Amino acid sequence: MAADADEGDYFVREIERNNGCTLKVKQCYLGDVGCVVWDAAIVLAKYLETKQFYDPSSGVNVWAGKRVVELGAGTGVVGLMAATLGAAVTVTDLEDLQTLLRVNIQENQALISSGSVTAKVLKWGEDVSDFRPPPHYVLMADCIYYEQSIVPLVESLKLLSGPETCIICCYEQRTEGVNPKVERQFFELLQQNFDCEEIPSDKQDPEFSSPDIHILLIRRKV
């Protein structure tokens, strides 16, 4: 997609923050999985501003000044939410999604005051020296769907994570086709090096949650 892609190639999805600001995320009409805002991304974005992380009335802001990397960012909605909450975010995806990421960063820049967001290419399984020191958080929404990518994805999680890194993974459980097998392979491989804990629905955004969308906290085994 050319950097000056025609406006007609996009439509805008709006995600309202609890403070009334609205993130506006462009997605393509045509194209592959990366250019659509999946429901899991919105569930994860809204989870980032639940009271346990962000509660201005009591002075809680877990995101302030934290280094965050989003994997398979697609439109960048999750990383953009973290940036508006004060995190220093790097949204990552393949080369052909960089234009869309940059468009969305530009579109939402006015909502980002204390945080920051930049887009970088990261191909799963490849060198992560650009992302040192290890981020405080790695965010990923709906990245587990493609059998060939499971091994490189887990490799990236191992390469990126330090002992303090918390990975927040949100995915929609899909029952058709190869999806159950792919999910099973991902978790079997992941659990060799990481511990996973599922977030109960009462800790998620009351409006933006769904029984078939799961949020996991994943940390390196000690």
Automatic annotation (TrEMBL):
The keyword Transferase applies. GO terms for molecular function: methyltransferase activity. InterPro entries: Methyltransf_16 (IPR019410), SAM-dependent_MTases_sf (IPR029063). SUPFAM superfamilies: S-adenosyl-L-methionine-dependent methyltransferases. Pfam families: Methyltransf_16. The keyword Chloroplast does not apply. One of its GO terms (biological process) is methylation. One of its GO terms (cellular component) is protein-containing complex. The lineage of its organism: Eukaryota, Metazoa, Chordata, Craniata, Vertebrata. Gene3D superfamilies: Vaccinia Virus protein VP39 (3.40.50.150). Keywords: Methyltransferase, S-adenosyl-L-methionine, Transferase. This is Valosin containing protein lysine methyltransferase. Signal peptide: none annotated.
